[in-house]
Structures are given as structure tokens and as C-alpha cells.
Specification:
Blueprint lengths: L23 E3 L27 H5 L33 H5 L6 E6 L6 E12 L1 E4 L2 E4 L4 E4 L5 E4 L2 E4 L2 H10 L3 E8 L11 H10 L8 E3 L3 E5 L2 E6 L4 E6 L10 E4 L3 H8 L4 E4 H9 L11 E4 L4 E3 L8 H15 L7 E6 L3 H13 L3 E3 L10
Parallel strand pairs: 4-9, 13-18, 15-16
Antiparallel strand pairs: 1-17, 2-3, 3-9, 4-5, 6-7, 7-8, 10-19, 11-12, 12-18, 13-14, 16-17
Length: about 375
């Protein structure tokens, strides 16, 4: 049974797209029973902008009636023994898909609205970018911009919004054996997270490989209002705390380094934005091709989403996804623990440069690289 007819008016007017899923309003997301109830401040997905007013939200949506609520569903916690990197042989995708010679995904960029295509192919050596007929290892690229997304430069060419694809590599522990070709200047948004990219890597049948980054001593790096704590450990662990001044959202998420958990819980977390950010992007013509089920819009009173039900911890899980993707450019997620408070693309890259300079973390040569056990 479909949603009531009146829900059809609750669509993001900024997304000029033929909707296949109604955008519904979440007035009161179900609270996370395990939430520590931390005091919250302000912020957005990347920059510390102010949440929208009710008037700004109403400019994006039609009439909003009360009485509709989506219950947040939390993934059950799983305990793990030894960690397996790469695609699990137990996953239905791995069992049903023949190993492919390439895996391609195409769509539209979130910020540019321009169509683009990503092609993944098996390749020898470390993960690389295929550019102008040659392979450029990711360790040789430069981060040149971090507003709203991570933009890299290699061989005189810039590619933006790379973090979701790299999060799939980092979450699955795949550091070698894949070549990336990007047709376009911005990677496609696809599902808004990293699940589609994880599926593409599984189609290649790529196995997990050794990490290229290690925490060698405990230390803290502060970048503005963001902070990063590095701790030595045998395995890999990421923890993120957000500060959005919104009691509807769970402030903390953690990932213990297991690739199956990443695919099931972290990769599906969709990108999100405040309503005023969406309106600004729409005025610039940047979101006209974005499907509503790939983005969550946070208003001061309502949360708009389509497709999968919204969960109170989805924004913080997406921040953890972004962190994993940004860390992959340095060989991470590292062996060790990274605890990030109010992370963002800019602060994360600045923190990693400082952590490397202060020898809190070190890059691991390929011959000395290790697999987490």
C-alpha cells in the first residue's frame, strides 16, 4: 500500500526529477536508546553553517501536515572474531556475481549536476587512477579543495567528491588490485553513500589487502573546532561524534574495522544537507538531477527523506563514511584507533598532514604492510 496522496506534495521542489519514491516527513525520529545524550552545538555535513528556519524549509516543500512519523531502525550489533578484508564470500552478491573484467557505475554529480561515469578494473599494484593512458597511484595525488567534498588533483586534472568511492575501498580493506577511471570532473552521487561502490568492487571479486597506514603513538590533533585522537591498537577502529545542535540525531557512531559491518551499516548511510544548503545549491542549478532517495534534508522541524526509512544515527554514520574515505588517501583507515570530534573534509586532511609530520601515524611501505587480525 502506497503513502497517502497528500504525501505526494512533500517533495523537494529543488530536485527537478521524475520521482519514483515519495519524500516523507520525519517529525520525531525515534530516539536511540543507547545515545549518550551529549550536549550538541551547531554544524552541517561539512561547514559550520546555521540550520534553516521554518520559512526556508517551507520554500522547499509543499504543505506539511502532522501525524506522520518514521520509526528509526537500528542495525543490531555484531561481535567479530578475526577480521576478513574485501568482499565476504558469504554475501549473496559475491555468490551470485561472476568475477567481472570491469565494473562501471554512472550518474550525476551532487554539486555539478553533470553526468559522470566510474569504471573499476582489476590491476596490479596499489589502487590507482587511470589517467591519460597511465596509472597514477593514489599516494601521488594532491588534495586541492575540501568545501562540501574532497577534490583531488593528479596529472593536471581535478576530480571532486571522491570520498564515497574511497570509503568503499577503505571499508572493505582493498588497498591494491584496482584501477579507477573517472569520466567527468565529479563522481556520481548514486545512492548517496558507498553501498553501490561496494557492490561494484564485489563484482570484481577483489580480495582484501594490506593497510598502508599505522598509528605509531598516541596523540591528539586539533583543527579549529575539530579534534582527532589517535591511539595505538592491533585492529582498526573509527569513532565519530557530531555536533549539530539537534536532539533528533544520534551524536555518535563507531566502526570496528569489519568489512561486512561496513557494507551492512556504514555504506548505506546517505549524504545529508540542511534545507538552506539545498536551496543554495538549487539556485546554482547544482541538484537538478539528484534523486530524492539519495539525500536526507534536515529542517528545523522536519526531516525529509525518500526510499529507505530514516534512522536517527544515519547522519553520523555518513560522517564516519566520509572519514573512512578521506583517510584512504593516506593508506587508511589505519591500524589503530581514530576518534574524531566534529570531523569534516578540510579538518581531516589538515589533521592527517599534521599527524604525519608529528609522526603520530606513519605510512607503511608495501613490503611491510599488514592485514588486521
Amino acid at each position: 500500500m502506497g503513502p497517502p496522496q497528500e504525501l505526494s506534495n512533500r517533495v523537494l521542489l529543488s530536485f527537478r526529477h521524475d520521482f519514483h519514491a515519495a519524500v516523507v516527513t520525519v517529525l520525531h525520529p525515534a530516539p536511540d536508546p543507547e545515545s549518550p545524550g551529549l550536549p550538541l552545538g551547531g554544524g552541517t555535513k561539512e561547514d559550520a553553517l546555521h540550520p534553516p528556519t521554518d520559512e526556508e524549509l517551507n520554500a522547499l516543500v509543499g504543505h506539511v501536515s502532522d501525524g506522520y512519523r518514521i520509526q528509526a531502525e537500528r542495525a543490531s550489533r555484531v561481535s567479530f572474531g578475526s577480521l576478513r578484508l574485501g568482499c565476504s564470500e558469504k554475501s549473496s552478491l559475491f555468490r551470485m556475481t561472476r568475477v567481472a573484467s570491469e565494473a562501471a557505475r554512472e550518474g550525476y554529480g551532487l554539486h555539478s549536476g553533470v553526468p559522470s561515469r566510474v569504471v573499476l578494473r582489476p590491476s596490479a599494484g596499489a589502487v590507482s587512477l587511470h589517467m591519460a593512458g597511465r596509472e597514477v597511484p593514489l599516494r601521488d595525488v594532491r588534495v586541492v579543495a575540501t568545501r562540501r567534498a574532497t577534490t583531488i588533483e593528479a596529472g593536471g586534472r581535478r576530480i571532486s567528491t571522491i570520498e564515497h568511492l574511497l570509503a568503499a575501498f577503505g571499508g572493505l580493506g582493498i588497498h591494491e588490485g584496482v584501477s579507477i577511471e573517472v569520466v567527468g570532473d565529479e563522481l556520481p552521487l548514486l545512492d548517496g553513500g558507498a553501498r553501490t561502490y561496494c557492490d561494484a568492487l564485489c563484482e570484481l571479486g577483489v580480495r582484501g589487502s594490506a593497510a598502508r597506514l599505522e598509528v605509531v603513538r598516541d596523540g591528539e590533533v586539533r583543527v579549529g573546532e575539530s579534534s582527532y585522537f589517535f591511539q595505538r591498537a592491533r585492529g582498526s577502529r573509527l569513532e565519530v561524534t557530531i555536533d549539530f545542535n539537534d536532539s533528533r540525531l544520534t551524536p555518535k557512531a563507531a566502526w570496528e574495522g569489519d568489512p561486512d559491518d561496513f557494507q551492512a551499516r556504514i555504506a548505506p548511510a546517505r549524504t545529508f544537507a540542511f534545507a538552506d544548503d539545498v536551496r543554495a545549491l538549487a539556485m546554482a542549478g547544482a541538484v537538478s538531477h539528484v534523486t530524492p532517495d539519495s539525500v536526507i534534508v534536515l529542517g528545523s522541524r522536519e526531516i525529509l527523506c525518500a526510499g529507505e526509512p530514516f534512522a536517527a544515527d544515519e547522519p553520523v554514520r555518513h560522517k564516519l563514511l566520509d572519514l573512512a574515505g578521506d583517510l584512504f588517501l593516506y593508506g587508511g583507515p589505519p591500524r589503530g584507533t581514530v576518534i574524531a570530534r566534529r570531523p569534516g573534509h578540510g579538518p581531516t586532511h589538515a589533521a592527517m598532514r599534521e599527524a604525519l609530520d608529528r609522526e603520530i601515524v606513519r605510512r607503511v611501505p608495501e613490503r611491510d604492510a599488514f592485514v588486521f587480525v
